[in-house]
Amino acid sequence: MIGGERVGAILAAGGSGQRAGVAKQWLVLGGETVLRRSARALAACELVDELVAVVPPGDEPRALADLAGLGKPVKAVAGGPARADSVRNGLAALPECALVLIHDAARPFATPALAREVAQAAAEAGAALAALAATDTVKRAGPGERRVAGTIDRREVWLAQTPQGFRADVLRRAFEAAGPDAALATDECALVERAGGEVRLVPGEPGNFKITSPADVERARARLEAPVAMGIGYDVHPFAPGRKLILGGVEFEGEGDGLLGHSDADICAHAIGDAILGAAGLGDLGRHFPDTDPRWKGVSSLLLLRHIAGLAAERGWRVGNCDVTLAARRPKVAPRADEMRARLAEALGVSPAQVNVKATTGEKLGFVGRAEGIAAHAVALLVRAV
Ligand SMILES: Nc1ccn([C@@H]2O[C@H](COP(=O)(O)OP(=O)(O)OP(=O)(O)O)[C@@H](O)[C@H]2O)c(=O)n1
Ligand SMILES: C[C@](O)(CO)[C@H](O)COP(=O)(O)O
After folding, report:
1. How far apart are the first and last CA of the chain?
2. Protein residue closest via CA to atom 13 of ligand 2
3. The pLDDT of residue 129 is above 80
4. Structural domains for the chain
5. Which tens digits make up the pLDDT trace of 246-303?
6. pTM for the whole thing?
7. Strand order in the sheet with 74-78
8. Cα(185) to centroid(ligand 2), Å
9. Residue 373 to residues 192, 296, 356: CA-CA distances in angstroms?
10. Could you tell me if the CB of 306 is within 6 A of ligand 2?
11. Under 8 Å between Cβ of 232 and 266
């Protein structure tokens, strides 16, 4: 509310991300969608009373689920072919708001303070936008041309951002005045300018860039996501008669009983897999390969490991390195450690140099020392794939 007038925020998220090659609003960066992050900044502005997300037709339920828990009422409506169509639909969904803020879903770094300043300026002037004063020298050229046609006085140049704010009646009239030409406008303030209305400039934020190209996606990712992640894995299996003893994908024939388990009980692969899942924030082995699922019965754990590396890769991670310690009275692991490294590395799609395998006997203490079973401890470091 500003002076008793209700403030609504429109998240323009109806685009298809042609230039980025991906629907930017649905990209998950730093654990949340770009849409949610953008909406969160506006929801956190104390002046904003409600929000509407304008999304590609059919995505409305997804948007409502994604934007749950922002602490303000949220609606979702279908966008249109042009940005202006989307914004118009958003405006129609806020009939009780005397003031509206419009924000690109593709600008996930705006702050609540910027939204507040724009809303206050719009309440006073009728329309306002966040914008950056040009600091580079600005050249002019014909569209698509490489020949400079002149230099523009940069003191007159401001680079438009969002949020942009409006008295709702001012924006509605501007849309009416523009008619079908509204679709040509690349921002909403341009409509008010054309209609002769006042538009106030509010200093924008350098960090409030719009994700437009693939390079912008990487820039946003670098800002939101750690370049590395680490995880820990631990597993225990008892020995059982009649079982093969498989560790790190290598069969230890003639070394006594193997380990009991639903799959091949390769505890070494399991601990590494758990460490990778942990680093990628993907839970644990039991969640992905429950021992109630017949598909995993007797299966080679290297297959599970390959699948896990694939899951991590889907989330933009590659394995940097992993290290596993087996606590095992038997078998003697060291003579076959290199073989195990090679098999594990092959399953993970990395070089054997990135996998380390070692063992300790347990000094005759506890279940390991009594040779009742084996325990495995692993750590994994994941690195952002570029
Ligand atoms: N019909 C459209 C087109 C764009 N937008 C939104 O307007 C913002 C800025 O647009 P842009 O960066 O151009 O996004 P896209 O349209 O998705 O990208 P592109 O133009 O590369 O296809 C984005 O949050 C986008 O979702 C919208 O709501 N409705
Ligand atoms: C509204 C805007 O973000 C201000 O810079 C910009 O004009 C959107 O333009 P696009 O062509 O839709 O990316």
Report:
1. 44
2. 212
3. yes
4. 7-224 (3.90.550.10), 228-384 (3.30.1330.50)
5. 999 999 998 889 999 989 999 999 999 999 999 999 999 999 998 898 888 889 999 9
6. 0.76
7. 74-78, 50-55, 7-12, 99-104, 158-167, 127-133, 200-203
8. 9
9. 75, 21, 21
10. no
11. no
Q: Is the CB of 54 under 6 A from ligand 1?
A: yes
Amino acid at 234: Y
Nearest to 105 by CA among 58, 69, 51, 159: 51
Candidate ranges 176-180, 297-301, 340-344, 367-371; pick with highest mean pLDDT: 340-344
Q: How far is CA 125 from CA 92, 129, 133, in A?
A: 22, 11, 20
Non-local CB neighbours of 262 within 8 Å, separated by 6+ positions = 291, 296, 297
Three-class SS string for 73-88? CEEEEECCCCHHHHHH
Task: Give the DSSP per-residue string, 86-118.
Answer: HHHHHHHT-TT-SEEEEEETT-TT--HHHHHHH
Enumerate long-range contacts of 61-68, CB under 8 Å, 24 or more apart. Answer: 62/26, 63/13, 63/35, 66/33, 66/35, 66/36, 67/35, 67/36, 67/39
In SS3 terms, 33-59 reads as EHHHHHHHHHHCCCCCCEEEEEECCCC
What CA–CA distance (Å, rounded) separates 83 from 116? Answer: 23
Which two structure tokens, joined as six digits, stand for 352? 């054997």
Coil, helix or strand at residue 217: helix
Cβ(156)–Cβ(126) under 8 Å?
no
Q: Which atom of ligand 1 is nearest to the CA of 104?
A: 24
153 is annotated as contributing to ligand binding: no
Which residues, including other chains, have CB under 8 Å from residue 194's CB and lie 6 or more apart? 174, 177, 178, 185
CA of 231 to the centre of ligand 2 (A): 40
Which value does ipTM take for this structure? Answer: 0.96
381 token code pair: 């470091």
For ligand 2, whether the C-beta of 237 sits within 6 Å is: no
The C-alpha angle 243, 247, 251, rounded to 5 degrees, equals 60
The predicted structure's pLDDT at residue 30 = 86
Tokens of 279: 């680093």
Distances (CA, A) of 18 to 14, 24, 188, 192, 202: 12, 9, 21, 27, 29
- Whether the pLDDT of residue 225 is over 90: the answer is no
Using omega within 30 degrees of 0 as the cis cutoff, is the peptide bond preceding 163 cis?
A: yes
pLDDT the model gives residue 386: 65
Question: How far is 194 from 217, CA to CA, in rounded Å?
Answer: 33
